Amino acid sequence: LTCSETLGEAIYNYGDTELRSKDTCMVLAQIVYNKCDVYKKAALCMCKSGQLNRVMAYIHETKKFILDDYLFLLSKCPSTELIQCLTHDWNGNPAVLSTGIAILWLISNDPKEVGFHLLKEVYDSGQGALEQVILHDIYCTLDDWQEIADACKTHNHNALADNIFTVLTSQEGGTVIMITADDDNDGARLTEHVLL
Prior knowledge:
This is Clathrin heavy chain linker core motif domain-containing protein. By secondary structure, this protein is an all-alpha fold. It is 62% helix and 0% strand. It has helices spanning 5-17, 22-35, 39-48, 52-62, 67-76, 80-87, 99-108, 112-124, 129-136, 142-154, 158-169.
């Protein structure tokens, strides 16, 4: 057989449906993808086999991965473990994916809850952890973080949204204007955050 991306996909798809053959198929598909220089799909085979340390070594050795490749991996294998590997330092190398970009992408796509879970893990990891992530993320802008906060509000993750708004408005020139209105139906109060 001649190695091709099509052959790799056939082997991968078979292994993805026939669980008894999954490990063997993932290894074979990875070999085919490597020979064809389809790096992101070779990495996906490793992810599907649970070999996250190998994935990270592969990413750093090949030096061929770009943002779209990381997002491809997240879309095909949205596990918390993979997200943590991509968004944290690895063997002295800086993280390959911004935490903010990962969260924004996850909550903008399915499965949204994985993104909210990641955000909650950051928040729960210690006092000031969320603020550090927001302020030191050079790829995710303050506008992106506002979009994340808005999505949190929309999906009833109000504590996360409020904490993000607090960090954003603590920056120079940031202000929160609280607007309240009575809801005739149940007396609930609507709170809207506006950044100036």
